[in-house]
Write the structure tokens for this entry.
Amino acid sequence: MTLLYRNFLFEVLCWRRRASERSRENRVEIFKKDDIIWSMYLIEAPVLFNKEIINKHYLMGLFAPEVSQEAQPGQFIHLRCTEQYDPLLRRPFSIHKVRKDTLEILYKVTGRGTSLLSKKREGERINLLGPLGRGFKINLSFTSEIILIGGGIGVAPLYFLACRLRRFPLTVFIGAKTKEKILGKEDFMNQGLKVKIATEDGSEGFRGLVTDFFFSQFHSSIGAIYACGPVPMLKEISNFSLRHNIFCQVSLEQRMGCGIGVCQGCVIKGKDRYLRVCKEGPVFEAGEIDWSKISLQGR
Ligand SMILES: Cc1cc2nc3c(=O)[nH]c(=O)nc-3n(C[C@H](O)[C@H](O)[C@H](O)COP(=O)(O)OP(=O)(O)OC[C@H]3O[C@@H](n4cnc5c(N)ncnc54)[C@H](O)[C@@H]3O)c2cc1C
Ligand code: FES
């Protein structure tokens, strides 16, 4: 923790605020010598709504024009869940939806930070840093089918991605434990997308894991796979895509400290180097990660 703060404070001292045409006040740029190595906004974003959509899962809308207009699918925001310093660290959330001036996050209450977040009311402000990280790569020459696979709360970043990929042939696989826990189905369907559901108890759609459902439906004209969800799911999908030589990107989660590449708190083992999930990720190509060294714990 001490090292984390020493690095962080050092980096803060190196920050220079620069006038930017669009947001003079809020843009933060980090420089190494004269090169910008990181650019983001630090804003107090008003909460537009914060509603429980299913048990312990919330959808929060934030007014954040600077961020929503620059965000790319797969990027995340780092939120302070309270105005006090306990919990001290920000919490990362994928950008779920963007409209012109607003963005939405879809989150699950898992602990102290998310519980505090769930109590935020319309009009309150949340300290937001973002957009952060590297998002999904979109190849505009896609011609074959694209598959999105979301497990549980892992659907969160996929909706934003689906909106960007709408003009391609797209199928969304959603996995959940039970019918009551399916997330995002209506939103994807309202976009006119083909949605396939797997529930572990068989209460809707395929009975079993979403990975098994996808593998059973696999055909050779699939051109790309994008996935987010529990680590074992991502590992299986990555290995499958590598075996079949299909372009595949996964969005990973790690506990985070700074969220901006400084503290090394989110490092994972890549194939040929260590990777910071907040900076080189959270989206990685399947083959970039050394899956044998990744903890299979996860949401
Ligand atoms: C890039 C990124 C994007 C994310 N996007 C979303 C999202 O869109 N929606 C969402 O609900 N959550 C998302 N998460 C996870 C979210 O950040 C954590 O659930 C949150 O930080 C937990 O905070 P807490 O204080 O409530 O829980 P804590 O009290 O810190 O922890 C409660 C439990 O959650 C586990 N946990 C905490 N952080 C993580 C994590 N990063 N990954 C896996 N398990 C964790 C802990 O091991 C513990 O069991 C994302 C994480 C990352 C790194
Ligand atoms: S969270 Fe600090 S380097 Fe990634």
Summary: The helical segments are 2-14, 65-70, 112-118, 156-164, 185-190, 210-217, 231-244. Residues 210 and 216 are 10 Å apart (CA to CA). The radius of gyration is 19 Å.
